[in-house]
Here is the input.
Amino acid sequence: MFQENSGMDEIRAGQSEVECDVLVIGGGTAGPMAAYRAKKKNPDATVILLEKANVKRSGAISMGMDGLNNAVIPGHSTPEQYTKEITIANDGICDQAAVYKYAQNCYEIIQELDHFGIRFQKDENGDYDVKKVHHMGTYVLPMPNGETVKKALYRQLRRARVLISNRFMATRLLTGKGGRAAGAIAVNTRSGEFLVIRAKAVIMCMGAAGRLGLPTSGYLYGTYENAANSGEGYAMAYHAGAKLANLECFQINPLIKDYNGPACAYVAGPFGGYTANSRNERFIECDYWSGQMMQEFYNELQSGNGPVFLKLNHLHEDTANHIEQILHTVERPSRGRFHDGRDTRYARDMIEMHISEIGFCSGHSASGVYVDEFARTTIPGLYAAGDMASVPHNYMLGAFTNGAVAGEDAIDFSAEVDFDEFDTEAIDIERERILAPTKREDGIPPNQIEYKVRRGWSTTICSRPR
Amino acid sequence: VTRKYELCQARLAEVREDMETAMIARDAHELMRAMEAGKHSGLRRHGAPLHRFTAPKAAGASIICASTIPSATKRIGDAMCFSRSDDGAMTCEKHPIKPYIIPIADDEKDAYYNQRIKAHA
Here is the structure.
């Protein structure tokens, strides 16, 4: 059923089936790199990249990125130092193998991205201009033309002849009778048509569960994380039987009040910006995001010294304007418009901050689908990388690096196995489940259901125990 | 099990019933939103037991450590793992953290716990 003349796409019946060696779900950050590396390692293999929007402009880095938060670059830091820092920042809850492997591999990925045409800031000697933001080590590398990331990635995917299927949202993983990953069921987001993909290995790169808590602004899409990352990866992996880990390590972030964007210690910190209380006093030594930093932030809000501010107005006007220029043009251009509307200027005003809604996101926290250092989940042939995997403090470079690890391991795995048979009844059941809301004459629209679920999260689950 | 937990379960069950019996999708866009809402509902099952870990202080990335494990030695313990059993029920188990590859010295463990700048006189 659909509304005639609604201006929206009508729902059509129909179902297609395809086969591939490796299916990558999610065309944001980790997904394109996973697909690219899988295809690069075995050019004869069939690799499909599935994306519910369009790979050219999807995922958490759709607008680009200001910099790398966690670059382990020889001469500035070592994999051992980084692994130690993240273990401590994550309160000791850390399977180090995956973090250590990331730290060992990420420099190669930086060089590869550089080769793709993504420019990183370099000093007068041509060395990477790494900044210190973390409490202990030096890992932040600015990206002056960070808005080009997706374009550069897309170019490489086309060159490698990865098969891209835009506008297909995966809804269920298919597990084989032998217990392996066997593919996925997807639905076209413009027509409702079904696509069944049989695969020898599946890599899930579906981002954070960013649309789970309700922001204090009340806007469903005013989330800290990319609002398109609604958490289906977590749910699909769980439904397939994969383990989820560290969910108690959920994520809360400092952000600009009423604008769910980060305060960006990574950008402002190296220029001399910092978090201050209402007395203009700095109260934490290090603005790098960690559980303890957020605890101190919260304590300050509760102490009577709040609100908490991003303080940049002590800097030279040119410096503050430069920070504005970075923050308002690349990752979140709406941020500039938000400040324009309130007539706030970084060179003049203290910028009020607050605490974000709660989300699951291993890009920052450790919650996610449990993976080992090869990005393998607990289901054979099923991989997870990027924000949805249980590797803490991973961010964009972690998604690229672990996506590459997953792609290379999955293509090797697929060469050793055949397609696993699955119960075709699962497709019929899924079809009935998905299309049920289209067959009702009247009822509750999904945005209202979503509001109820997310409000329940914020007010019931994520509140103080009674 | 707390009273809050019971209330949470009851409210979310009501929403789930609405979702399964009354949610509508009038076009392809709403169908996508309905699929996403379905995933939110699935995730609530993981979240519900977690409220017991939510710190009274209600902030922090690694809340279980910041609030419920007081000493540095206990911090390096187990994490929680969740999975779905064959009958569809959620299971919760302790997942032991593997021995560290990079050792953490005793005087380094608290590095992130001592960030507060002492109040001005």
About this structure: The CA atoms of residues 118 and 211 of chain A lie 29 Å apart. DSSP finds twelve helices and 15 strands in chain A. Confidence is low (pLDDT under 50) at residues 1-8 of chain A.
